[in-house]
Amino acid sequence: MAIKIFIWIFYFGAFISILNFYLSWIRYPIYCLLRKKESYKFNSGIPLLGSLFNIISIITYWGTARAVLAFIFFLIDTGGFPWLIYSMAKENWWREEKDKRERKK
Predict the structure, then answer these.
(1) What SS3 class is residue 61?
(2) What is the domain range of residue 58?
(3) Would 97 be classed as within a structural domain?
(4) Contact 58, 70 (CB under 8 A)
(5) Model pTM score
(6) Under a CB-based contact definition with an 8 Å cutoff, are residues 73 and 54 in contact?
(7) Considering its fold, how many domains does the chain have in total?
(8) Mean pLDDT per 10-residue run, the chain (105 residues)?
């Protein structure tokens, strides 16, 4: 029974990661092709939940191909931990660059 629960956690983590990736990178270009940039509303997906499920799957299936897949899903989950850290670092860098430009003026 416990093994089936971890299999479902793996599947939910994969689904949420793919959904977040689709909503972030694929949905808008498809929408633009079909609707010519009419009022588009961005959706955020399900943040952090996919990463949590993928981390559980990586720990559970360590040393197997399923752990490698869970790690790939962890990396492409745009609502997850790696992208949160990336966006915060980028925002901090952008703010520092803006402050440097303002000081030069």
Answers:
(1) coil
(2) 2-80
(3) no
(4) yes
(5) 0.81
(6) yes
(7) 1
(8) 87 94 88 77 82 94 95 91 88 82 76
